[in-house]
Structure prediction request, 355 residues.
Amino acid sequence: MTETTKVETMIWQGGIEGCLDLIDQTMLPTEILRIECEDVETVWEAIKMLRVRGAPAIGIAAAYGVVLGLQSAQEDEDAFFARLNEIVEYLATSRPTAVNLFWALERMRRLAETKRANFEGAEHLREALLAEAKSIHEEDRRMCHAIGGHGADLLSEVEGVLTHCNAGGLATAEYGTALSVFFTAQDRGHSLHVYVDETRPLLQGARLTAWELMQRGIRATLICDSMAAQVMREGRVQAVVTGADRIAANGDSANKIGTYSLAVLARVHGIPFYIAAPSSTFDLAIESGDQIPIEERCSKEITHGFGRQTAPDGVEVYNPAFDVTPADYIQAIITEKGVINPVNRETIERVLGVV
Ligand code: MRU
Prediction:
């Protein structure tokens, strides 16, 4: 990728009085527009409207959102912490499914609480919280690169691979989760042919994944979601790799709507289905995918996609943004700490190092 085409998902500009500069992903692929978030409300809106999206990127943006919200906090300790709690609760209402959002907010709150015993003033704490947000950002970068390494090992015999939604650099600090596997394979001289589900209704596959792959010179073929079965039947792909928004303790994984159907199709065709996700996407507090909250979005995303009415006025619509793939359908989960295979509570705890 050349410097002119490299796009940073998010950049923090300046010190504690700075702002969050992020690419508005709703404008891609036709326009590379950056927006400057100068207050927490703009970050909330950017997450809600999918200007910044993808589980890890949402978490990073929210962490910086906390810093922005505290710029106007009073110096008094109690008032400062009251404002912190208010901001954390507010940002937590932006989107419900990706656990990285809650994970990052909890990390910010915990950092502040540990410093409360020796409160050295609001400015000192603001500095510490900005440093924590930057750590979350930087750690995600490292996790994505590590995921790529583990995943590329798994795909060494694969020529064609299918992916869904966008789990690329745009969805993370950099490099991505599922796409980092393809990028790493390419860096090692292994050219993959990636089939990209367009990903109805918001077309993250067509608008974002196809764009990212083409930026890097990886062969990408766009298909409608409904074509996946035929693509598998024709033997065009030997693996499916997607990201995840939340993984329960038993391995059930929520990801963009349509992922579950791909996993079922992959099973029927004898093709391995992999999830690539950092440890920040695991929610070990919930037993199974039944407890994952599934976001429902506005009906207009289906009836008036991209500015044109495509359904009759008043039609009833159901628009869940995510689905849950049962652990049993997942061949392996590729994390920065290693590959979880088979997928069950014991292997998850062992690879993540939580036992
Ligand atoms: O609604 P979105 O675009 O935020 O959904 C994103 C996904 O489903 C991604 O696959 C997931 O967050 C993993 S991103 C590394």
Notes: The mean pLDDT is 96. Residues 77 and 116 are 8 Å apart (CA to CA). The chain has two domains: 10-142, 149-352. The longest helix spans residues 122-154.
